[in-house]
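User: Predict the complex.
Assistant: Input components as received:
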Amino acid sequence: MHKTRSLNRTSPVDIMARTGKWIYLIFFLILTILPLIWLIISSFKTNYEFETQPFALPVVWQIQNYIKAFQMANLGRLFLNSVIVAICTTAFNTLVASMAAFAISRENFRFKNGLLTIILSGVLIPIIALMVPYFKIVSGLGLYDTLPGLIITYSAINIPISVFLIHGFMSTIPKELEEAAIIDGCSFTQRYTRIVLPLSIPGLVTSGTFVFIYCWNEFTYAMLLTSSEASRTLQLGIRFFRSQFVTDYTSMLAAIVITMVPTIFVYIFMHNRIISGMTSGAVKG
Amino acid sequence: MKKKVILMLITTILALSVVMITGCKKEDESKADQPAKQELITLKWPTIWVGEDSKAPMIAALVDEFNAMNEGRYKVEIEANPDYDAYRNKLNSQIAAGVVPDLFVLNPDPTSLSFYEGDLLMDFAEELSGSWGDNFVSGAISGATIDGALKSIPYEVGYTPVWYNMDIFKAAGIPDIPKTYDEFFDACEKIKAAGFIPTSQMTGGTNAWTSMLWFSHIAASIGGPDVWEKDITDPVFVQAAEILRMMYIDGNTSKDAVGGDAGVSGGHFLAGRSAMFINGPWYIGRVKNDAPDVFKATKIGPAPAVEGGFEGAQIGFPQSNLAAGATDDPAKKEAVIAFMKWMTLPENVKKISMDAGSMFAVKFGVDDGEDVDLVQGQFMNAVNDSAFVNTHFQANFATDVVAEFGQALARMALGKATAEEFIQQIADKID
């Protein structure tokens, strides 16, 4: 009976709608995947093949592009630096932003909204406009060409977006939970560490993921604030294959593919939490 | 359990940060102590001549040789900055913040030359007024001097004649390279009929390099040696823009030229698909290694001349100067000058030139028996045979105006702007 009813519902309009839906989805899938496939295939070509036949398959798959990427740009060391910078920045930024978001979203004080607006307005400032002041601060602190210099800068740059995301999430946590905690004797700090922070983990993960990926892909400040291989990150390694007039495109693409792997894994393992964090923050509790 | 984890995480982060920051400061302090204990002067040289740059191996060898000769006294440390645009951004930010590297490569365009103002850069005017200055080609020193100050030493120069693929010309039944633009467009028709692309062009990149050079050649041919003294709205530039527009229509260039970058424009020439292309001597190695057949068929020659205009125009420009941060320390200044003298020594410059194919503002002789690359020799002849040498568009305008050139060119190539509107868009940016 149920089967019959279900078959009756499959009208030509339904079939067309479903077909249209799948065509639409497949179109965007191809649009998204194709550049990635092109990138991966191109990373196995010679420069001559890349420049003269950009959409053909390589005659011989050039594994040595990957070997060259690792050897010439010393990607191993740069990879380690990127991991250190991205993890430390994510941790620092999440800690500071969650504290700020906690105070703003859970406490009542004068100019609260004004303070939030000032913090969030940082999102609107192009980072290139802050290059000179950041350089002065970092070199003044004696942190030029050090990993802490990059970690502090990235943490600061990402505070507006992190506060925005975490504040949105924390605002949805019922006040009653904190009130009960106060009755049980929780202090201000304990409310933050024992009640609000654990309940905000999806929001923290969302914010942390954004920060991690930003750090992983950032180039401008990495270039500005470092000068030696000891403190450089992966994105600078990618540029090692470009010179003033000549570019080794295929080795550069091989390096790009290598650098993409961690971000892809972050998305694969975190995408559910990222989406839940973003949507939870958007709904009032 | 969760509480403990969070507390441990916070404690670890704070401890890690304290250790890293203090550790780093201690390292800096220990570095700061070094000069007092030793006489060794270390000069940091952030440079673009690393990685894939054709000059990189010889530059590194010369730096090593300098360090070995001056062991215990001076040491130059190369800091690799292969990405040219990023290098310029970094330098601009550093200099704006008042922190100038010990040594660096300065691109002598209007934006970078504004660094001459103030006292952040070392002035070499006095040193170069002596015998050291005699190493340089005529006019190079005076060209780099502004208000009596010589704050960057002319070094690498670029010449960009036209690269002609004579195999394509033969296949199209054209006996020789075009001397006028009438001959040029006739040749384009025959080249298209033979199944090839007449010219390599590009509107992409930061400066639409190949097309910007075509425009500079045409403008030089119409306006002569002083063309860049004219206002950009002068009819000379509109006429030049119209010829450039014609190179983009009717299949005179590839479809991917709009938005294409140097890889696209160079790729068509390398593949033997396009007949005419413009680039400098640094591209010799790429053609020689990747497209030996095209290399054998390549003829370097002047661009065509506009009827009634100036014949024998060549585009040449100071490409990279050497510069240094000013210092009150006489010993450090001595070290900088010693290194600059070393890098501009004619025999050292000759080594770089012969190895990389680059051209320099420093004079050096080539003996008859010496093995000069065939195409490099043609480059030298093209320069020697020219009636006059003009700089290109990029050398005469600020970075944002140069970036606008490509944007405006794309509009014109797509038929969304006339030659007048193309020029007006650039003029608006200058204003």
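Chain A touches chain B through 48 residues (CB under 8 Å).
Let me know if you want any component modeled separately.
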